[in-house]
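Support request from a user on the community tier.

User writes: "When I paste my structure tokens into the form, the page sometimes reloads and wipes my input. The last time it worked, I copied everything first. Here is what I submitted, just in case something in the input itself triggers the reload:"
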């Protein structure tokens, strides 16, 4: 009798696999198209004059060929893993990267720029690509795509592609809450959030008008827990804890973003927008790193782990960790590859699976 009981589950498992595999192969997303900031920038900042770059070691040391690409990470970032999960290339190339051309971009392209925000004033802080310019580049891409695959196929790709939109952190940390910012004297934080939501709505409507339909809108992370903000807290004498004001700001903004997603799905015919919110997951990882296989969450791998990013995170720093997989954060502002993978898997399983 016992042997029979063991036999039954095996049959069920084989049956489930037979059903699942054809669904994955027949995926309907022909390309991943990315807009946003350093959370998703694959190297566009390499090609512009800004100090906010990461195309040097130790960035990229766990990427293919140990190559620094301009991703603010030791390896891949979420769009790369999401692209792979859709059966596309295992990374999404940057639009301005001269190593790639429209033959590559037809299956996925990234317009993001580290340091940018919804607010034009945010992109000016570090002279990076403003969001309106990301749209201009996207329009140019559409023309190139049409010339390459023909107008019918181009229209199909534009309409069926999955758009990943991830930005907003810089509007608060680099702009509103910085000492030099004019915004804090013009707006209360609630007013500024409302202003950003209007800009976000305007942005989504523009790409919708240009053909985008499947859009994943990404929520803000618990930005008060970034190592840089924790280090600033120590200096202010608040101890090594997350900055609750910044976390509350992110939480409230995420509620507003979620509301915007619902609104645009109601208002715009054919719109399939989803809210991809990694806030709670990232907070869980930070609070309980060992249950996700990490050893360190309070400081980053690079350098002292408190301040270093971009040019301050350089290969000569002897303090940089040897195994970034043990760290939740790669530099003082950005997650490690392993954390990015956990987030991408979570979003694929819970939100983006409807596009498979
Ligand atoms: C941002 O700058 C662009 C280009 O100058 C302009 O078209 C747009 O209206 C600006 N946005 C806001 C909200 O001022």
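"...and here is what came back when it finally went through:"
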């Amino acid at each position: 009798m016992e042997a029979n009981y063991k036999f039954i589950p095996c049959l069920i498992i084989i049956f489930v696999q037979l059903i699942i595999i054809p669904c994955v192969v027949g995926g309907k997303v022909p390309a991943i198209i990315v807009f946003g900031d350093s959370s998703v920038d694959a190297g566009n900042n390499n090609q512009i004059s800004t100090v906010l770059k990461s195309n040097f070691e130790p960035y990229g040391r766990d990427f293919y060929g140990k190559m620094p690409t301009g991703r603010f990470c030791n390896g891949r970032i979420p769009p790369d893993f999401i692209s792979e999960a859709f059966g596309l290339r295992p990374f999404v190339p940057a639009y301005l990267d001269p190593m790639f051309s429209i033959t590559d971009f037809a299956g996925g392209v990234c317009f993001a720029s580290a340091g940018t925000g919804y607010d034009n004033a945010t992109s000016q802080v570090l002279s990076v690509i403003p969001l309106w310019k990301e749209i201009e580049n996207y329009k140019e891409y559409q023309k190139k795509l049409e010339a390459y695959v023909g107008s019918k196929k181009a229209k199909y790709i534009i309409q069926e592609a999955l758009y990943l939109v991830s930005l907003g952190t810089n509007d608060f940390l680099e702009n509103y809450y910085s000492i030099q910012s004019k915004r804090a004297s013009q707006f209360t934080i609630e007013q500024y959030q409302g202003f950003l939501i209007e800009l976000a709505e305007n942005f989504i409507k523009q790409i919708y008008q240009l053909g985008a339909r499947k859009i994943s809108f990404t929520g803000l992370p618990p930005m008060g827990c970034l190592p840089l903000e924790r280090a600033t807290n120590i200096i202010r004498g608040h101890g090594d804890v997350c900055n609750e004001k910044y976390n509350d700001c992110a939480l409230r903004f995420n509620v507003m973003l979620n509301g915007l997603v619902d609104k645009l799905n109601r208002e715009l015919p054919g719109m399939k927008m989803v809210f991809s919110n990694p806030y709670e997951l990232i907070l869980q990882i930070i609070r309980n790193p060992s249950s996700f296989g990490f050893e360190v969450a309070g400081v980053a791998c690079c350098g002292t782990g408190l301040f270093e990013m971009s040019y301050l995170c350089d290969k000569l720093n002897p303090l940089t960790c040897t195994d970034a997989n043990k760290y939740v954060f790669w530099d003082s502002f950005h997650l490690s590859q392993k954390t990015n993978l956990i987030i991408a898997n979570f979003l694929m399983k819970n939100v983006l699976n409807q596009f498979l």
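Agent notes: The reload is a front-end session timeout and is unrelated to the input. Residues 1-14, 18-26 have pLDDT under 50 and may be disordered. The radius of gyration is 21 Å. Escalated to web team.
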